[in-house]
Amino acid sequence: MKKWLVGVDEAGRGPIAGPVAVGVVAIPIVTDRTVSSLFGECRVADSKWMTEREREHTFMTITELAVVRSRVSMVSARVIDRIGITSAVRRGVARALAGLALDPDKCEVRLDGLLRAPAVYCFQQTIIGGDALDPVISLASIAAKVTRDRHMVRLARKFPHYGFERHKGYGTSAHYEALRKHGPCPHHRRTFLRAIV
């Protein structure tokens, strides 16, 4: 009998700097504990459609609700360069799910896009556009994005030349200009920069 509904999504697949983050959020499957009842005052949507303030508010609720379990696994730029982004995301999914410490047989896992959970999770479904269509995947999307964005802001303090706090590692024109001027830092994905640097 399944006891947990688990959403899985990633943030940061496309940037040229920083880690990729995989978020997982698990809520108990009981009739009075739906996403809407747990998060009634919070906006729950695809994180890309939410303001930073909305995401932060919902993420705070995710971390404060005792009945909700969540984990975010970040895989570094160095690992992305070594094994590729697809394998890095797969590693992040496995680590984040393992971090929940739930019995796989008691989980119904819903994943966004082309993501897959390890085969031990027999009850899993991949939903194209799931971060917009399924509330538990939306929660995972929010957890991944907020965690990664906060990490990029911290990196900006150590590497102020690149503007990580603004573009979060994405390849904006200002970011490319900073790369031309200063070269890459240890958190740039070298395999993503071959045509530029």
Automatic annotation (TrEMBL):
Q: Which UniProt keywords apply?
A: Cytoplasm, Endonuclease, Hydrolase, Manganese, Metal-binding, Nuclease
Q: Which residues form the signal peptide?
A: none
**PROSITE patterns attached to this UniProt entry:** RNASE_H_2
* Localization annotation: Cytoplasm
Q: Alphabetically, which GO biological process terms does the record hold?
A: DNA replication, removal of RNA primer; mismatch repair
Q: In the record's cofactor note, how is the cofactor described as bound? A: Manganese or magnesium. Binds 1 divalent metal ion per monomer in the absence of substrate. May bind a second metal ion after substrate binding.
- Gene Ontology molecular functions: metal ion binding; RNA binding; RNA-DNA hybrid ribonuclease activity
UniProt cross-references to Gene3D superfamilies, sorted A to Z = Ribonuclease H-like superfamily/Ribonuclease H (3.30.420.10)
Q: What does this protein do?
A: Endonuclease that specifically degrades the RNA of RNA-DNA hybrids.
Its name, as the record gives it, is Ribonuclease
Please name the source species. Answer: Candidatus Vogelbacteria bacterium CG10_big_fil_rev_8_21_14_0_10_51_16
